[in-house]
Amino acid sequence: MSFDWIKIPQALLTVFVVFNFGLLLNALIAKIAARVGRRQGIPIWQNYVDLIKNIGQRSLITHGVHFYLGPVFRLTGGVGLLLFVPTIYGSEMFSNLSFAGDLILALYFVFFGTLGMALGAAESGHPYSAIGVSRGLSQVTAAELPFALAVFAVALQYQTLSVTDIVAAQQGGILHWTLFTNPLAVAAAMLSFLGSMMRPPFDVVLAPQEIPIGPPTEYHSSYLALLQTNRAIFPIAKIVIYMNLFFGGAASWPVFALKVFLIYMVSVFVGVVFPRFRVEQSIRWFLIWAVPLGVLAILWV
Amino acid sequence: MGLFTPDRSQYPAEKVDGSLDIDLSSGKYLKLWQGPQHPGITGNMSVELTVCGDEVVEGKTHVGYLHRGFEKLMERRSFIQCFPIVCRICVPEPDFNEYCYAAVVEELAGLEVPELAHWIRNLILEMGRINSYMMYLGGQAGALGMGVIGQWTTYARDLMLDRFEELTGARIYHMFILPGGVRDRLPEGFAGRMEETLRELEDIMVDVEQTMFRNAVFKRRTVGMGVIDPDWLEPYGITGPNARAAGVPRDVRKDFPYLVYPQLDFEPVTGQDSDIYTRADVRRRDVLLSVDLIRQILARMPRGGEVMTRLPNVLHWKIDPGETYIRGECSRGEYGYYLVTDGSGYPRRVNVRGPSYTHAMALLERMIVNVNIADVAALMVSLHTYPPEIER
Amino acid sequence: MKEELQKRVVKGPDGVEFEVEPLRDYYCEALPQVERPAYAQIIEDLFNWARSESIWILGFGTGCGAIEMRPLMTPRFDAYRYGIQWRPTPRQANLFVISGYLSVKTLKRVIRSYEQMQNPKYVVGLGSCTINGGMYFDSYNTIKRLDQYLPVDLYITGCMPRPEALLAGFLDLKKLIRAGKADGANHYAENFAWYKANQKQVIQDWDMPDYNW
Amino acid sequence: MQTNLLDIHARLQALLPVGELQTQRADLAFLDVPPSLLRATLLQLRDREGFTHLVLLTAVDWIEQEQFQLTYLVCNRSARLDLGLRVRIPREPASMESIHELWPTAATYQRELREMFGIDFPGSPRLDEDFILEGWTATPPYRRDFDTLKYAEETYAERPGRVTYDPAAHMQQQLYPGER
């Protein structure tokens, strides 16, 4: 099997574009949330400044080897997710390193970051980190279940494990999207999406009022900068998967930006006005509402 | 609620003196400090939690981080010198200190306060009550992760602070109610601007009700949580909204009327269920009651008259021996001053009785047992305690 | 020394016995290091600009001034516009706002939180009580000069300072940071012995190691 | 019929040799009680007379008479009456019976009195833990013989330039300069 080496710089270019897009989008979302609170909100470039500042902090404290691995794994989760999924459909340049079975790999990468944080947070020795990570792992597990079910439903529906093929099958009009051909799977997946975006009502993992601020309590300076980078890339990468699987993918960057923004807004709309669930309440919520939808979606196919 | 049953079988045994036998080195329990450097704490205090899994086994309140020794400082200040420092005892609602101190000195010194000053004092106390409740509502929502309510209510509080600024010239520490009366009359056109503020406030309260009190997740987190048994009211000395949410109409404004409350038309707000939700709801309705009271006060207030009685030379002001206690209903419960004089120019002893004293110490330590870590912040905020008045 | 800080042998949940020495295990006794600007001037300028535009305040309301911090973050004053925001953990915060009087008990916690913050870090003293004791000049429980115990970059006067004064103070702090003059952390490390001596003089119950980040 | 404080006092005096009633207001009076009778009086007031609410428990230092006065203020919410019980105990050694079984919240007050006045309440829970102060070794601060200004000047560094005036002398200087 021949490998096209030009694909690597091309994929890195995608990462770069998505990184910038993510930073700006996060600031925009923060501004929108601020408008709900009648504030003006942060400047749109604030995330860049924060990032530079955190890199520029002088002291670095380590708590051991695994402490380094936390942010690194987390960032690997985000970047890896993005690298193996085609970002722009039909574009040779931005289809990244996608291959025939990339859907399974993507599912794995979604979970990867949280596991990495578990390593790092446990090593940091802070009780709040430990509590936050145990909450995070249990909640992510519950939230991933409906998503995995929805992905199986979609894979069964299109009889393929390649994201590119799934996108291809959805071309040719809005009614070909999975959103309309398999609404149950989309519903299950969107509920799971709410749970994995770290916004209320499912942000008990980070809850500053109880366990400030959960897993990253001890992370600072460059470690925090890595986590911030991931915070820009990971939601976008995750939305890219959703977009590809359920909303017909994107054929160009403007369409990509619009669709990502709209999907992101779903979680923001829900998040702004809700308090957060306790972790066992959110798990129960996923099991009662999202998982049956996922099972039905598989049966539907 | 299934998972968190109050099954005490796997809990630590009690020792002879009633404390729990917790062996930290067994690895079964974890000691967590919530505070003082912690966003989920009401002010500068801390709760030492011993948790087993996700559940709190034992909680101990630690205060003293804000202790300035007011009661000692007042013993070496003359009666008029005490007046500017008393408001600093309780930061979010300072006016009650001013009122209680003024009233307690007036009673022992035998001063008569002009009628208009009573009305203005009452107006200020109700305005301060709204401010305090606004802080509470934001904090209660914030403790459950709903930051937007805090934005709205703090905005409403700023509106009310504007009126304070217009009336007294200061935002937080007003130093307006002094022994013998108040410093000044209402400014020209104050009632109209107050009415505008009240309307805006009511709009915000409608928003708050819609997003907070009708929110399914908020209900899920608060209904049935942190119940105060009505039997606890007497042993723990619970007053104010915490008692009213348990269905007991205990309100100093009604029971021991002071200022012009006898002339105002109101009924204490009560609730039934005594959980976090009810306590929040009682306070929300109390805000609306205060809005109503402010309207009544502004409408019925005498149009003219003196606001200050003639004081003796304050630099050589001596008060005959005596002791008394004055109470008022602040936003958290019964607020009182106990003053002992010995015939000199200085108070012999001042004791400030803040409602947080009992709520945050004995009551919180009892209620916090068996609660999920995630609910500790919400429970603590729902008791509405302000640390500065615990330790003074 | 408190009982829980003493050296002892502990039996773990798996039955293995091991020795615990809390002062050594739970705290780090390495002294703070002076960390000078390490890069070329142009990069340091960029960093200083970023530091000044992204001020993260530690969420620790030490005194009554904390009540004006909430309006600062809400619609009327909205300090987020200037890149100012809260961080709940000292590891990620740059600015410690000492909001008013400090009782001795709080001072101990403040020192600990301050030492956990990362270099460069700044301290702003709020209100007259941090400057000369203010209203509490004769109190037996509050300190009178904050700069004896922590390196202070800026004082904001008032009792208590209004949010407008706070905003103006933060803008002044930005100028200091941008000029590279806000170097309190290094000053603290250089004069560590002097600061510790002052701190130990007022804190009677000194049961922690000298440096505990 | 509305109960009033005089009736209650008369009923109380029939049972226990308590002191005279000193009426401050229609709804507030103070009563001297010997230390040994305090518990019985409180029980009688709480269980028979409806004074179920312990408003405050505090101490006054009468250093001239070498005595502490403990004030137990109890309140009858339904009859709207307050009664303050004044108990005089010797200053050295200061010790008083604990009432934390009657009102659990009294334990907090007793902890504060222990720390601030040095009054001992044997049996009260967590009495010797630090409550407000931490590692305090000097005289308990609320005692009259503790000079807070002197302590503050000795302990805490002062910023040079701060001046304190005596208000009376200062105003005299301002208003009538030249006069001594």
Automatic annotation (TrEMBL), chain A:
Membrane topology type: Multi-pass membrane protein
Matches recorded under Pfam families: NADHdh
Keywords (A to Z) from UniProt: Membrane, Transmembrane, Transmembrane helix
InterPro entries to which the protein is assigned, alphabetical: ComplexI_Subunit1 (IPR052561), NADH_UbQ_OxRdtase_su1/FPO (IPR001694)
Subcellular location: Membrane
GO CC annotation terms, alphabetical: plasma membrane
Entry's transmembrane regions: 12-30, 67-91, 103-122, 143-162, 174-194, 232-250, 256-275, 282-300
Coiled coil: none
Protein name in the entry: NADH-quinone oxidoreductase subunit H
Organism encoding this protein: Thiohalocapsa marina
Lineage: Bacteria, Pseudomonadati, Pseudomonadota, Gammaproteobacteria, Chromatiales
From TrEMBL, chain B:
Signal peptide: none
Keyword annotations: NAD, Oxidoreductase, Quinone, Translocase, Transport
Keyword match NADP: no
EC class (word): oxidoreductase
Location in the cell: Cell membrane
NADH-quinone oxidoreductase subunit D domain boundaries: 151-311, 318-392
Gene3D superfamilies: Cytochrome-c3 Hydrogenase, chain B
GO molecular function, one term: oxidoreductase activity, acting on NAD(P)H
A GO cellular component entry from the record: plasma membrane
Main location: membrane
Protein EC: 1.6.5.11
Topology in membrane: Peripheral membrane protein
Main function: NDH-1 shuttles electrons from NADH, via FMN and iron-sulfur (Fe-S) centers, to quinones in the respiratory chain. The immediate electron acceptor for the enzyme in this species is believed to be ubiquinone. Couples the redox reaction to proton translocation (for every two electrons transferred, four hydrogen ions are translocated across the cytoplasmic membrane), and thus conserves the redox energy in a proton gradient.
PANTHER family: NADH DEHYDROGENASE [UBIQUINONE] IRON-SULFUR PROTEIN 2, MITOCHONDRIAL (PTHR11993:SF10), NADH-UBIQUINONE OXIDOREDUCTASE 49 KDA SUBUNIT (PTHR11993)
Similarity field: Belongs to the complex I 49 kDa subunit family.
UniProt-recorded name of the protein: NADH-quinone oxidoreductase subunit D
Organism: Thiohalocapsa marina
Automatic annotation (TrEMBL), chain C:
Keyword Membrane among record annotations: no
InterPro entries: NADH_UbQ_OxRdtase-like_20kDa, NADH_UQ_OxRdtase_20Kd_su
GO CC annotation: respiratory chain complex I
GO molecular function terms listed in the Swiss-Prot or TrEMBL record: 4 iron, 4 sulfur cluster binding; metal ion binding; NADH dehydrogenase (ubiquinone) activity; quinone binding
Keywords of this entry: 4Fe-4S, Iron, Iron-sulfur, Metal-binding, NAD, Quinone, Translocase, Ubiquinone
Pfam families: Oxidored_q6
Family listed: Belongs to the complex I 20 kDa subunit family.
Keyword Cytoplasm set for record: no
Top-rank taxon: Bacteria
Domain annotation NADH:ubiquinone oxidoreductase-like 20kDa subunit: ranges: 63-172
PANTHER family: NADH DEHYDROGENASE (PTHR11995), NADH DEHYDROGENASE [UBIQUINONE] IRON-SULFUR PROTEIN 7, MITOCHONDRIAL (PTHR11995:SF14)
Organism: Thiohalocapsa marina
Gene3D superfamilies registered for this protein in UniProt: 3.40.50.12280
Gene Ontology biological process terms from the UniProt entry: aerobic respiration; electron transport coupled proton transport
Protein name (Swiss-Prot/TrEMBL): NADH-quinone oxidoreductase subunit B
From TrEMBL, chain D:
Domain NADH:ubiquinone oxidoreductase 30kDa subunit: 32-150
Gene3D superfamilies named among the record's database cross-references: NADH:ubiquinone oxidoreductase, 30kDa subunit
Coiled-coil blocks: none
Superkingdom: Bacteria
Single Gene Ontology MF annotation: NADH dehydrogenase (ubiquinone) activity
Family: Belongs to the complex I 30 kDa subunit family.
Official protein name in the record: NADH-quinone oxidoreductase subunit C
Organism: Thiohalocapsa marina
